[in-house]
Amino acid sequence: MTHLISSPHSERPRERLLRHGAHVLTSAELLAIILRTGLPGCDAVSLGRRLIERFEGLRGLLSADAGVLMQVPGLGRAKTCELLAINELNRRALEEDLRSGEALDQPQRVKQFCTARLGHLRVEHCIALFLDSQLRLIACEEVARGTLAQASVYPREIIKAALGHHAAALILAHNHPSGLAIPSQADMTLTRHLKQALALVDVRLLDHLIVIASGAVSMAERGDL
């Protein structure tokens, strides 16, 4: 007589996913599928739950850098690489949406992309999304790193890049590691100067997004552009 061997607890989420779909699983269970194994006395689901708590949510976990992840008990080289790959695939999927040929008439998609790209960073980074005449994404490039108060963003460099990409418009975005999504005086000054400079070469500045971990605020929507 053949005896059925029950699956280890860490494999049960896979069975549920295949039977009912990924949407029925908790975040910890989805992580368990990726992690595959846990620690002594801590199965993969429990490890997933611990990771979510430690990083204060999925966004914090999936946006953590390799050095931080490698120091976490239960995350070796392989698991760290898998988590980093998932975050990068998510960013690339969002970027594909912006290159899909549809006009950027849905600001929420741009906010999601910029939040995925910048929201987790501990130092200010500034990126520019260069767009064609139909507002499709041509390229996304980092144009500065460090606080904007130190005048690290140079309009002439952004103009040079815009002309190099034959861009008709662009969107600027930078993060506030402080978590305060309110444009500073430096943000306002930069936006005004950049808009004026771009107008001289027939390139429109559509928006300037202030990004924090939980989302992005549009200066255009605030009436600050």
Keywords:
alpha+beta; Cytidine Deaminase, domain 2; 10 helices; five-stranded mixed beta sheet; elongated; 2 domains; disordered N terminus; 225 residues; 45% helix
Would you mind describing this structure in some detail?
The longest helix has 22 residues, at 77-98. The chain is 45% helix and 16% strand. With 225 residues, it is α+β, with helices and mostly antiparallel strands. Strand 4 (204-212) and strand 5 (215-218) form a beta hairpin. The chain folds into 2 domains: 9-92, no CATH class; 103-222, Cytidine Deaminase, domain 2 (3-Layer(aba) Sandwich). Helix 6 (77-98) runs antiparallel to helix 7. The relative contact order is 0.10.
Distance between the termini: 75 Å
Contiguous low-pLDDT stretches (5 residues minimum) are 1-11
Percent strand: 15-25%
Number of H/I helices: 10
Q: What characterizes the major β-sheet?
A: 5 strands, mixed
The backbone outline, from C-alpha atoms, is elongated
Give the oligomeric state of the chains in this entry, treating copies of one chain as homo and distinct chains as hetero: single chain
- CATH-derived architecture of the largest domain: 3-Layer(aba) Sandwich
User: What's the rounded overall pLDDT mean?
Assistant: 84
| CATH homologous superfamily caption of the largest domain | Cytidine Deaminase, domain 2
Which class of the largest domain in CATH terms?
Answer: Alpha Beta
Order of helices and strands: HHHHHHHEEHEHEEH
Tally of distinct domains:
2
- β-strand number: 5
